[in-house]
Amino acid sequence: MNRRLLLVDEDVAKLELLSFILCPPPSEAKPIHEPFIVVLAGNKEVAVDHVKRSLALKLPFAGAFVDVGGPATGTDTLIRLRNLDPQIQLVAMTTEHAAQNVGWDLLATPFTETQILQKAHQLISRWEIQRRDSEPKRRAK
Length: 141
Description:
- The protein is α/β, with parallel strands linked by helices and 141 residues long.
- The protein has helices at residues 12-22, 44-56, 75-84, 113-140; strands spanning 4-8, 37-41, 63-67, 89-94, 105-108.
- Helix 3 links the parallel strand 3 (63-67) and strand 4 (89-94).
- Helix 2 runs parallel beside helix 3 (75-84).
- The longest helix has 28 residues, at 113-140.
């Protein structure tokens, strides 16, 4: 199962928080979930480079959480990531509750740990289903 997630935000503290939630450090306590593999990007150019590199290595990201409120990220990042990898599952993190778009999920900030984990599991599941459903098409070519 692909548990690779890209986290994109210019706010380093938010990236660290998301990373801590999705990939908690090892401890003596039993983890509440299997950790995800997370890669951090502080701006859209770094995010695009990470996706290009992951595809070249045949280690695609299942999903990406992208802050769309800052000048260093935004909805253009979502579009660029989708153009590079049509299978990547996207979440736009925004303070604008009324934002409407096509092709990605919305996650209003502030968010809870539970919301982040639920959304991450949804991304992984959708990526796996999409990959499985496209298998016969790839074999037929």
